[in-house]
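User: I'm putting together notes for a lab meeting next week and I want to include a structural view of one of the chains we've been expressing. I don't have a solved structure, so I'd like a prediction I can at least talk through. The sequence is below, exactly as it appears in our construct file.
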Amino acid sequence: MIGSVASGGAGILAYGLMQMGGLAGLGGWSWIFIMEGIITCLVGIAGYFSLVDFPEKAATKSLAFLNPQECEFIIRRVNRDRGDALPEEFSFGRFFTPALDLKIWGFALIFFSVTTVTYSIAYFLPIILREGMNFSLGASQCLVAPPYGLAAIVMFSTAWVGDRYRIRGPILIFNSVLALIGLPIMGFASHNAARYFGVFLVTAGANSNIPAAMTYQANNIRGQWKRAFCSATLVGLGGVGGIAGGLVFRTQDKPKYHPGIYACIACNLLIILIVCLETVYFYHRNRQAKKYGRLIEGSDTFRYTI
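Assistant: Thanks for the context. Below is the predicted structure for the 306-residue chain, given as structure tokens.
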């Protein structure tokens, strides 16, 4: 949620830094790179010293973030949920065998689709507002912020619902449907006010799916090295989605950018399709475990979160 709010302020910050153009003989775009680069480095250095370690080490490291009793409580909760709180010895088999599990690639494709949409919106929303909706440069940078404010609200609300009712897939579908409603409005409505309303829905749905996709994966994987492999595929294809997002809205497609709209619609439909397929699989496996006592992920107590 903090990241969503920060994304909303990025356009305003960039517009403010552009006003430094000419200072020290540098252009405004140069000051954007310089100042935001310095901020990033400072936050990275601070993060190195303040990053919280795993629960079994958090009482002695991580600025004493948790006391020993709290660490033990968290470890018990993790073990009760999936039984893999403590580190496992590394082996290539444990790390690479999960590559044969199709659901892991399903998680990665979901995240690829999510990041394709979110990056494309983040990269090109100011351009869409300026060249597609004819707002001024300053207005287009500032109008980026309100949709991310709504995204933060939707993100927090869906996270609460997901934790309260122990669901993950329906949250992903809801957010994708929200984006699917907004994309045609953004792309095909005749009035700028209506198109800007579509931007709100797309930004809220797409960005809310980032934590939803991560938790969907995290709740349905067991074993530390399998989790490591799954995280690697998730982050890796998420990065590829960022590259794809940079190619979605092309200059030659302005002012309507219809091919980019179609690409984002296809990504959200793919998310819904994969979630539906995995939901059927998870339901079937949970039912077998309950009825016949079959193991899931090598455990007799673990259950998939639908």
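A couple of points you could mention at the meeting. The longest helix spans residues 258-292. Residues 107 and 217 are 6 Å apart (CA to CA).

User: Perfect, that's what I needed.
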